[in-house]
Amino acid sequence: MPHITYVEASGQSTTVNIPEGWSLMQGATTNGVEGILGECGGSCACATCHCYVAEDYLAKVLPASDTELAMLDNVAAERRPNSRLACQIKANTALDGLVVHLPATQE
Ligand code: FES
């Protein structure tokens, strides 16, 4: 299982193993990472799973869909070039070691 590290705005870092096919949002909420809310359950409709993908992994994640790009307009924290919605990124072996930083607020 790929291991993913979540770094919250406070600096708290949590590394978890996520089954392939799970979203990064599922991996966070299932493991008690508080910086991701995931209020819509992963249907790309709430923007409370905002994360910043480490630059060296950006090429390894699938590009954001038009729906995700539109939802990113609604994130509560600063939107950056590496902003993504964690529910739209599925864990796979290519993402093993990925670090995502979480914004200070999701709402
Ligand atoms: S969980 Fe709602 S947009 Fe990702």
Write the layout of secondary structure elements.
Elements: E1 3-7, E2 13-17, H1 24-30, E3 50-53, H2 66-71, E4 83-85, E5 99-101
Parallel strand pairs: 1-5
Antiparallel strand pairs: 1-2, 3-4, 3-5
Summarize the structure.
This protein is an alpha+beta fold and 107 residues long. It has two helices and five strands, in the order ββαβαββ.
Helical stretch tally: 2
Low-confidence stretches: none
CATH superfamily descriptor: Beta-grasp domain
Largest sheet: 5 strands, mixed
- Could you estimate the helical fraction of the residues in percent? 10-25%
In this entry the ligands are: FE2/S2 (inorganic) cluster
Q: What value does the Rg take, in angstroms?
A: 12 Å
Distance between the termini: 30 Å
Give an overview in words.
The chain has a single domain (3-101), classed as Ubiquitin-like (UB roll) (Roll). The chain is an alpha+beta fold and 107 residues long. It has a five-stranded mixed beta sheet with strand order 2-1-5-3-4. It is built from two helices and five strands; from the N terminus they run E-E-H-E-H-E-E. The protein is 12% helix and 19% strand.
List keywords for this structure.
binds FE2/S2 (inorganic) cluster; Ubiquitin-like (UB roll); single chain; 12% helix; alpha+beta; five-stranded mixed sheet; 107 residues; 2 helices
